[in-house]
Amino acid sequence: MKLHHLLPLIVGLAAGAGSLNAWDYDGHRAVNELALASLPKDFPAFVHAPANAERIAFLAGEPDRWRNVPDLPIKHFNGLDHYIDLEDMAAAGVKPADMSDLRQVFAQQVATARQLHPDKFAPIDPNRNSDHTAELVGFLPWAITEYYGKLRAEFSYLKAFEDAGTPVEIENAKANIVYVMGVMGHYVGDGAQPLHTTKHHHGWVGDNPHGYTTWMGFHAWIDGGFSGKVGLTPTTLFPHVTPVAPLSLAPRADGRDPVFDAVMDYLVAQHALLEPLYALEKAGKLKVEPGAHNAEGRAFIEGQWLKAGEMLGAIWLTAWRSSPPDTYLRAQLLKRQAAAVPAVAKP
What we know:
This protein has 347 residues and is an all-alpha fold.
């Protein structure tokens, strides 16, 4: 989903229809809040402290804020993490089950697919590729999986600091966990927006036998225009949240990371809702003028927020429960403690 060359046009077409990223800030914030509500009672209580819960919610918008600077390295790196155009790889014969769980290996898979099947990919226009991302198809599942690994590491070293660290170190470790929980929520939220899994991200492109909208502002309307106009909030969804269970970490025969598998399954399931979403628009179920029958549209958006919150909560829970003690750090901390104990003089 190459947003960079579409932004000026979309802004003109969809002014007032919300942001251009998956879910506006309010939607991303709602996903993180629903994920917090999904955590079981034994999850570390510090994340629910008011200041930490607010920070986790606030950080849901962080990766979109990174988009607002002109620096090419961050635009190139950050933009790719928000989407994956699944059709491009499928057309080249690479199914989700065949995609490497390693980011750079997958990038090579994309390059190879382009070399072998150049006719399956849209030509790259250098005048519309200023951030050099058109050669790729997005890294959303890798971004989510990598943040899971970071969070797992942080829970590991928190245990070491709680055992032999100082109060300041413990609080810093907790702050790092809050930060990663909040930021990774953005990408899980992106995954629940079907337009972040497809080449049809700003209106239907190419063959269009069902006559779906080609309006380039459609993405912005789904991100926040519709929900903002009808006043969707997570408040009415909290009663529908139930405690999540951890993801399965059973090893795969091919050695691919099981969390990456779960993330890919999640994205493929949201991609399956792409045509139903376009069909809702075609049927007028996403309108907000007086007399509009948009209950199905409201239910669709609310359902996607709930799915994202549940998936995010499950990833957080899995990272915490599966995190091993950081034995190396603990040993270093114990050495520090021993060195700080004054030697007892012999009589």
